Amino acid sequence: MTQMNMVQAITDALRLEMRRDPRVVVLGEDVGKVGGVFRVTQGLYDEFGEDRVIDTPLSEGGIIGAAIGMALYGLVPVPEIQFSDFIFPAYDQIVSELAKMRYRSGGEYVSKLVIRTPVGGGIRGGLYHSQSPESLFIHVSGLKVVCPSTPEDAKGLLLSAIRDPDPVLFFEPKRIYRASKGDVPEGDYTVPIGKARIAREGDDVTVLAWGAMLYEAMAAAEQASEQGVEAEIVDLRTLWPVDIDTIVESVKKTGRVVVVHEAPRTCGFGAELVSLVTERAFLHLEAPPVRVTGFDTPFPYTLEMDYLPLAHRILPALLETAKF
Amino acid sequence: MADSNVLERLYRQMLLIRRLEEEAARAYAQGKIGGFLHLYIGQEAVGVGAIAALQPDDYVVTTYRDHGIAIAKGMSPRAMMAELYGKVTGCSKGLGGSMHMFDAEHHMLGGHGIIGAHIPLAAGAAFASKYRKDKRVTLCFFGDGAASIQGFHEGISLAALWKLPIVFVCENNEYSMGTPLSRTISVDDISKKAAGYGIPGWQFRGEDFEEVQAQIGKAVAQARETSMPSLLEVRTYRYRGHSMSDPGKYRTPEEVEEHKKKDPIAIGKQKLVTAGYDEAKLKGIAESVEAEVADAIRFAEESPEPELSLLEPTTYDGPFAS
Fold it and tell me: Is residue B144 within 8 Å of B132, Cβ to Cβ?
């Protein structure tokens, strides 16, 4: 075990997999000599050279398109999109080509690659450096979507993602890139895709959270505990395919569910989670499901801490849902 | 003079493509093929000549007008026709249809329905080839309409930057859908755009498959030997509308007839006559093509449709989440 932050854990995973598998290449804006704007690829250029750690022009469609072509030819590319807010020029590539390749070639070709991209608010990034577009990708059949909340999970999930047979979007919550520290196992291990984690046990209300908001949910749960409400927190880890069994098991126990996410409320992933829970555990529900989310507006610059569903907004939802 | 066996093989390939598509058009009119069907009729010499300049394990990526290119790359007429019919025996198990001609065995990296989106993909395939030092070349086809879209610029820009073994072939058939080139693009020759990327580019006509083979051959050699990409414009013409639903009224019948005088298949036939083929021999080729087309149609008609249970396992490798 080594103490690492999330950036170090992700770098560790990339380095490990690049040493293990010569088909793995990294490409993106500033990922080479500079080591990435968040320094996630630092040191990789020196160790693996410019053929495997590839600086690209500002060309998101080109980066993802080329990565898809590399994957069709048997490489295992791990492209980085510098901010998930910049992913939209590549949205066509992801939706029309990447997600549908296995289907539309009748299984002849698969684009097995991992798109890494920082996600979410908390760095005063304003509307073009703070968004959480996960539901836009979950909605597209054919993609897997992952968002870790701890360094240990980040490393283990990234290793799983690179070895996964399907294309994976790997969202890295930038607010906790360096703020989250923890013990990370040395060497090779994986955290399975599609498995949630019970981050806190409790009997009164289930909270579904991921990424940076996991910590806000945990903080709110501690405050709720002081008032006699014990929240069970499910860290989704993989958003799609979501671990619905773990979620439903928890909701059947508590009878109550609160979903927390940074993205705007309408058609956010919370809407899908509430539907899935309602379909499977309707008769177990003791209270209406509640969503604590961002607003249906662009991500604000000055009002960031009001927009984000921080602990002070989660706490009342926990208490009211528990009391309902 | 080329080897007459080669001439015959390429002529036969063009004739096979033409006849397969004519029969596909008939099946479409009968409602047996649905959706969209973009025919290559009139452009056969481009695909056949270009692919004749490749090695068998070179890669080909193309746009939605892909039937002819897939056949030239080695796909079986059965797999192509069954795909058009939406049958499970098709190249993509009947799930894709006309615009999705994939054939891993023959290194056919697909027809792609989104204009220009496949151009960066082709650059990626060429990157992989260079990375693996396997000396393969990627041939990427697209139409004149693609030259104005994001993927065109991004794909060629990366290929030029990374010096990839790839040849970009713009099949300029003078219309992007129904609008003539003069109203959609500011240059009269798309290969001129090569200069902006610092790579070679040139233009030539595409009715004579031997000429196409020779011109593409130069670019392929450059790609294979020096890893220098190039952007070629091949002037061609489609006799039919953009798709089966397009009557093509934006062109005069005289214009279409004028182009048909330079029909690639007639030119090919003349080459065989010059090489000493008599009527009986030519008839023999035509009959063997007819038999192969009839076999493909019969195969497609008799094949079953895919089961609904095929949808999920071709979307994800693992189980669905919900």
Answer: no
Q: Does B158 touch chain A (CB under 8 A)?
A: yes
Is A226 near chain B, with CB under 8 Å?
Answer: no
Q: Where in the sequence is the domain holding B274, given as residue range(s)?
A: 4-304
> What backbone phi and psi angles, to 5 degrees, belong to A262?
-75, -30
CB-based contact A69 B126, cutoff 8 Å: yes
Alpha helices in A34-175 (DSSP H): 44-48, 60-72, 91-92, 101-104, 134-138, 151-163
Choose the mutation target among A104, A169, A242 for the interface with B, i.e. most B CBs under 10 Å.
A104
B143 SS3 class: strand
**Alpha helix stretches (DSSP H) within chain B:** 4-29, 44-52, 67-73, 77-84, 118-132, 150-161, 194-197, 209-226, 253-260, 264-274, 279-302
CA-wise closest residue to A322 among A241, A277, A247, A256 = A256
pLDDT category, B322, cuts 50, 70, 90? very low
Return the structure tokens found at B91.
Answer: 């190249």
B155 to chain A: which residues are within 8 Å by CB?
62, 65-66
C-alpha–C-alpha distance, residues A80 and B16, integer Å: 45
For residue B154, give the 3-state DSSP assignment.
helix
Mean pLDDT, residues B74-102: 96
Q: Could you give the residue ranges of the DSSP H alpha helices within A108-150?
A: 134-138
Binning chain A into helix, strand and coil, the percentages to the nearest 5 are 40, 20, 40
Q: Which CATH architecture has domain A2-184?
A: 3-Layer(aba) Sandwich (3.40)
Which amino acid does the sequence have at B61?
A: V
On whether any CB of chain A is under 8 Å from the CB of B320, the answer is yes
In chain B, the residue whose alpha carbon lies closest to the alpha carbon of A280 is B322
Helix, strand, coil percentages (3-state) for chain B, rounded to 5, are 50, 10, 40
> For the packed helices A244-254 and A269-281, what is the interaxial angle rounded to 10 degrees?
60
CA separation for the pair A304, A292 (Å, rounded): 15
A197-322 fold: Rossmann fold (3.40.50)
Spatial distance between the Cα atoms of A92 and B151, rounded to a whole number of angstroms: 10
Residue B162: inside a domain:
yes
Q: Residue B81 in contact with residue B101, Cβ under 8 Å?
A: no
Band (pLDDT 50/70/90 cuts) for residue B1 is low
Q: What is the CATH number of the domain that holds B72?
A: 3.40.50.970
3-class SS of residue A199: strand
Residues B9, B95: Cα–Cα separation, whole Å: 31
**Residue at B112 is within a domain:** yes
pLDDT tens digits for range B212-236: 999 999 999 999 999 999 999 999 9
Q: Which helix (H) or strand (E) holds B317?
A: none
Give the total number of structural domains in chain B.
Answer: 1
Neighbouring-strand partners of residue A233: A200, A207
Q: How far is CA B210 from CA A86, A268, B204, B214, in A?
A: 46, 57, 12, 6
Q: Are B111 and B62 in contact (CB under 8 A)?
A: yes
Q: What is the pLDDT of residues A112-160, one digit of tens each?
A: 999 999 999 999 999 999 999 999 999 999 999 999 999 999 999 999 9
Residue A226 and residue A210: Cα distance in Å, rounded?
23
Going from N- to C-terminal start, the domains of chain A cover: 2-184, 197-322
Interface of A with B in 244-263 (CB under 8 A): 244
